Amino acid sequence: MSEQILRIGCHLSSSKGFLNMAKTAKSIGANTFQFFTRNPRGGATKDWQEADILAMLAFFEEEGIAKPLAHAPYVLNCCAKDEGLREFALQTMREDLQKLERIPQAMYNFHPGSHVQQGSEVGIALIAEQLNRILTPEQSTIVLLETMAGKGSEVGRSFEELRAIIDKVEMSDKLGICLDTCHVWDAGYDIVGQLDRVLEELDACIGLERLKAIHLNDSMNGCGSHKDRHEKIGQGHIGMDAFAHIINHPKLKHLPFYLETPNELEGYQAEISLLRGVFEG
Ligand code: FE
Ligand code: FE
Ligand code: ZN
Hints:
The chain is of the alpha/beta class.
């Protein structure tokens, strides 16, 4: 049996292009990475250069890098009350997905949205409606709903809410889940003391086969705090032991892990090596 490799990386700036991100990933010991499809606050995007993408893909091949994760801008709100804002989210995601077809192995992660006093049921219906307009049978990119901390009126604060969205989407074979450790912890799932139980719950509610990626973040706050303040690995309320369990868990260890901790490159490099040190393969 071949040994499991640890697929781990961090969020990188895309401002210098794709090949540059791949080289940066390699330089810090990463074999995957996450990037924003455009400025995180939204807005216009520089055209993606075909030669740059091809150079990145060739570099992936040489260096064993895989599974780049594209992250939609934070400002998008698929369940905004204002129709114009929903339309903006729709156009942005549609354009992102069109461009992502040029990066065959990329997945696309987004924050489901905030219902802002409309109630989560309305929020869930609006998000599903958007996805029904965005997803196409031809697309190869899998779209990931991120588990949210439940800050303010965020939708996706429980597995049930994500399930409810998926249930309303026609092309749900294009949908998966990205589990953010800080977010689920802040949402009230005890991944420190009850990891197996949380994964059983996820499996029963959504199905583990939908889980495609993990955002690996410690949390500045306690379980159920609904705060969403990321902390460096091992320096928050989740703690190093829990991260060692998570990356080695038989149901999780094959997944790609992406750090979104408050770090510069050096800090990410140190966290990647820390986590590689406790990975048992
Ligand atoms: Fe996110
Ligand atoms: Fe995240
Ligand atoms: Zn977060």
